[in-house]
């Protein structure tokens, strides 16, 4: 199972890097074409937008894996470990439910786009290519939350945030600004 998760992790990382690279290259190319050669390629905009949409939804899954999403834990840290575990479990379950809803509704919407044979304006490619990012992202996020939920239910440690990794000096720097 760990090997599958490592492959999944690496695949997401490679896809995000590749998609950002494609978007950056096409944007740079378009700037050069427009400002140096007074021309352009309208297809680069469509590909860039689709790459960034896919990158966003895959990146959400990576954010969950790395525990870097914004979390409001002001209330949770006020409780003891058992209550924290219950609150974290409920929170993960609600996030999982959200991921499932995004996946299901996103799939229904992508089917609607496909049934109506909608094509992109410039490249004339099927629009469901871009819209499939929604259900795929929902599935990836759901799988990450299932992974997180299993971890919490097995009693493995789960940090609310990464504040514990900081030294006391670094924590103090976060609290006090240079103007204090």
Model description:
- The protein is mostly helical and 180 residues long.
- It has one domain.
- The chain is 70% helix and 0% strand.
- The protein is built from six helices and no strands.
- Helix 1 packs antiparallel against helix 2, helix 2 packs parallel to helix 5 and helix 3 runs antiparallel to helix 5.
- The protein is globular.
- The mean pLDDT is 86.
Number of domains: 1
Distance between the termini: 50 Å
Mean of pLDDT? 86
Number of helices: 6
Secondary-structure-based class equals: mainly alpha
Task: Give the percentage of residues in beta strands.
Answer: under 5%
Order of helices and strands: HHHHHH
Rg, Cα atoms, Å? 21 Å
Weakly predicted, low-confidence segments = none
Name a few traits of the molecule.
mainly alpha
Sequence-ordered SSE layout with sheet pairings:
Layout: H1 2-35, H2 43-66, H3 81-115, H4 128-131, H5 133-153, H6 168-175
Helix pairs in contact: 1-2, 2-5, 3-5
């Amino acid at each position: 199972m760990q090997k599958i998760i490592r492959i999944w992790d690496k695949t997401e990382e490679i896809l995000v890097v590749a998609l950002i690279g494609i978007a950056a290259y096409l944007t740079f190319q378009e700037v050069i074409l427009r400002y140096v050669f007074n021309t352009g390629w309208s297809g680069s905009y469509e590909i860039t937008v689709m790459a960034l949409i896919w990158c966003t939804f895959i990146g959400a899954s990576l954010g969950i894996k790395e525990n870097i999403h914004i979390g409001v834990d002001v209330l949770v840290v006020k409780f003891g470990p058992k209550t924290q575990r219950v609150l974290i479990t409920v929170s993960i379950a609600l996030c999982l439910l959200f991921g499932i809803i995004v996946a299901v509704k996103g799939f229904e919407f992508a089917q609607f786009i496909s049934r109506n044979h909608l094509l992109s304006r410039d490249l004339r490619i099927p629009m469901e290519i871009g819209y499939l990012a929604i259900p795929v992202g929902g599935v990836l996020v759901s799988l990450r939350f299932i992974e997180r939920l299993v971890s919490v239910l097995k009693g493995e440690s789960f940090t609310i945030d990464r504040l514990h990794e900081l030294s006391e000096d670094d924590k103090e720097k976060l609290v006090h600004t240079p103007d204090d």
